[in-house]
Sequence to fold (1157 residues):
Amino acid sequence: MTQIQRGDLVLDIKNLVANVAGRNILKGLDLTVRAGEVHAIMGPNGAGKSTLAQILAGRPDYEIKSGTVTYLDEDLLALAPEERARRGVFLGFQYPVEIPGVNNVYLLKAALNARRRQAGLQEVDAFEFMAIIREKMKLMKMDESFLKRGVNEGFSGGEKKRNEILQMTVLEPTLAILDETDSGLDIDALKVVSTGVNSLRQDDRAIILVTHYQRLLDYIVPDYVHVLAGGRIVRSGDRTLALELEERGYDWLVEGSSAA
Amino acid sequence: MSTPTAPDLEQLVAQKYRHGFVTDIESDTLPPGLNEDVIRVISRKKAEPQFLLDWRLKAFRLWQTLTEPTWAHVAHHPIDYQSISYFSAPKSKTDGPKSLADVDPKLLATYDKLGVPLHERARLAGVAVDAVFDSVSVATTFKDRLHAAGVIFCPFSDAVRDHPALIEQYLGSVVPQGDNFYAALNSAVFTDGSFVYIPKGVRCPMELSTYFRINAANTGQFERTLIIADEGSHVSYLEGCTAPMRDENQLHAAVVELVALESANIKYSTVQNWYPGDENGIGGIYNFVTKRGECRGRNSRISWTQVETGSAITWKYPSCVLIGEGSVGEFYSVAVANHLQQADTGTKMIHIGANTTSTIVSKGISAGRAQNTYRGLVKVLPSASGARNYTQCDSLLMGPDCGAHTFPYVEVKNPSAVVEHEATTSRIGEDQLFYLLQRGLSQEDAVNMIVNGFCKSVFNELPMEFAVEAQNLLALSLEGSVG
Amino acid sequence: MSARLSPALTRVRALLADALSPTRLDTLDRLIALGLPTPRDDAFRYTNLRLLDRRDLAPAAAGSNTTTTLPADLPIGADRLVFLNGHFDVALSRLPATLRVETAPRTTCDAGSISAVDRIRLLNTALSGTHTTVVVPRNTQVSLDLIALSTAGCGYPSLTFQVESGAQLHVIEQHTGADEVESLTAAVIDFELQDGAIADHTLLQVAGNRAVVIGDVRAHVGRDATYRHRSAALGAQLSRFDVTVHLNAAGASTALSGLFLADSTREHHLRTLIHHAAPDCPSDQLYRGVASGRGRGSYDGKVIVDAGANGTNSAQSSKNLLLSPDASIETRPQLEINAHAVKCSHGATTGSLDENMLFYLLSRGLDRDTARAVLTYAFLGDVLKGFTPAIRAFVEARALGRLPAADRIREFVA
Fold:
């Protein structure tokens, strides 16, 4: 892995058009994300926020009609989901799936080693791994019983989100996309999750927060805020845009976009 | 068991059949018995073309090679098919009723008693009705308005006369003559029924409805219904059935065939209230019915909804053959069996095309000494990639002497299919009942409320004006059966 | 019902006409008149025994030679009953002193009306040499292995376990044999559980690739007694087990669980019947099936609740996984309920691996083969958990060998 410096181009989306089940969701989306930055993507329900997140992770049922997505000089769209993951793209799911019978810890260990193999690093053994995960679990305030459970099996909504962030802190991605990580969290869990995310704010990493509410941005302060509406980024700005959105809602922008 | 005492219950359960009157109409009835001559007479009486007579005779010959199916969870005395009369038409001064004005006023009064919305009430309700009395159709309302939309809705015999090409093309194309014992019998002797054709792209402007009634003694009723929904068309059809109280068993062996072409949508609803027999199991209709629909075109849809409260024996499996890619089959059923009724009903969903979807929701309620069986087949053939089925099958037991049985068959030969089946059987929830009683509801109201809740997902599928009727019927069938 | 002529039966009759006792010959004739079960018999709807037509059904000779040894990889405990090619083999067996074992010549099977499954019993009765009865005396505890080893031809083990009141029996039944032997085992095993007795019955079918294994297991469960049954069907060309449990007195209970892996051209068929004949009996069933290649499987499970068996609580779960286009699985979970105060449920699913789960694992960097293997293995987890650690390890070793990326997935399973 070549060393990534602050300001390097991590993700470059150009004129992305995509369909889901025959319906056109993204209608020419542009977005540039550089190392060291945190971008928040906000927008009304159904605007295409989650679609964007899923496409970046490579979910199969999304049909790319045109446009390009470049990730660290590679064509991201040409890579299989697992290849993207190993190159450092991490999606924190909005609705993490439960996988009964598959152990949490072993999944995470296998995921970490898959990433390390890709980067030409030595795999970690069980002891090293346990040391890593124990530290991260402390950060995420998760108790030991978590180690024995199946992936998200029987987790509450908040536990699932915490588990996603735990995985992120272990995998140390280059591009983290967090899809509505704040939904369904109470204020204490939101603080824990934010601590986890903030611990990863570094010069060699970019983070995209997909969220509907401004509240998360009080804890994870973004460098850029974008409004995604009608399948396109209709406005970009800094943090103050999020505050303005909280006050005025989305309608004024959505109307503006369709008029334009 | 705590709350109601035994005599109370008996009193409550002894609910009388409310449609049990006999209309005294002179009728034109063939003597009992079945042979090729009888079939020729039926065909001649109806002035049928040669192809139909040949078709019937072929069916009769097939029928003679078949035996009654024995796999159903029902028991009855042997049926003497030679003691049944295979044709009974209400006699009329003319050759047959040509319009409402020609119909025997007594007959109209009968429909009035039944609550069949002929006349103005029909217009208000927006329902077009074809009424089949014993074996022939006597009146079809709203012909003109339907005609303007291009919809053909008429008695089957009119369709034979006026649209023979459609009949020849589609009759037996879904349920062939030799499909099963009862279907073969029906094919040989059917006397009338309803025919519907919805042309391309037409959304039928109103609900279509048929009321069936068996009136004459010792007759069987063998009606035949054929519905063809051409490309992109849409139709909702409802049938209701009643019969007088008689202490012998009468046979009803109908066949219904549905054909849905590309993007067509057929919704077929049944409220079946044939006479169920008395509380000792004397009399009642033997209801052996073959209903099947073929989704032939892409994205077509056939939906069966049935509320089965009547008949001494119900043997009925409305099915969907999902051929067209992306086609959808649905089966929503409430089957109530009380006293000594026996119901063996369910569905078959045959997935042939890719991405076909089926949903089965079956609610069985057993009371008294009744036996209620769900029997269903979900079959996914190797060609049906991406097929999906969901089945929910619940049984409610309302007494110590009844039975509830669930026999689902799931046969999957394509790995991309997802098939899910869930079933529960339990008695009516005592804590629910207690809760409602504590809130001041009567035992009956509480039971009705719980049973209606149990059936809600099926009632929701009925056309609005019949959902209420179905609920009332359910309440009548079960009043006080909790124990 | 028209019987299908079973050529194999007529052949074996011609061969053994002089050797069989009159009663056994009579039994064989009754079976010939009825024929072997076919898919036209409802209970055999999914099992076709046609491949027996070409086989020689004559029982293998009794007795082992000194070179006969048990396969080394079986999880065998200290005490065991060994049936070699269907015959109880004293030399290979090691029996605890507390156990009473009696063998007697086989008598006729005097079922009144003969069901399809009874016909397997007729086959066993006609062709098995002796019937073995094992008595576990009052208030004792016995653990032993029951090993059916096929080295040649056909075996017809016939065995009854009588577990007296308060006694406990742990038995691990294993069907095994070399891959090259074209064998048939048609076993009849009965459990008679007196009041308060417990039988814990594990059934491992790891027979050779050309074996046909048919088993008819029936348990009669007395007051407050428990029959537990766990099975794994992994080997053989075709295996078929009927497990019938009669809960005959109040408080009797049963729990059945099992898994099958029908890979390559293997067929595994399972039929269960739990008969609630008395009030307040719980029953539970948990089955998982996987078919890959051109494998076929079926689960046909019926629960019958008699009138008066109030307080019945019965649950049934059958989940099935199809891993290839030519694999198929049929399920038929049936409830026949004639009592009032009961709670019964069943759930059955058949499908492929869950796409959402697969995507989640891929998005964490696992390769597709590993992810698929992990999910397949996890799918079996609920049943695997029920085995003792030693049996679980054995089943896992056998099952894992059938999955891709076997070495990498073991540790994933919670």
Observations:
- The interface with chain A takes residues 354-357, 359-368, 370-371, 374-375, 377-382, 408, 411-414 of chain C (CB under 8 Å).
- The helical segments of chain C are 7-16, 22-34, 116-127, 355-363, 368-379, 381-384, 389-400, 406-409.
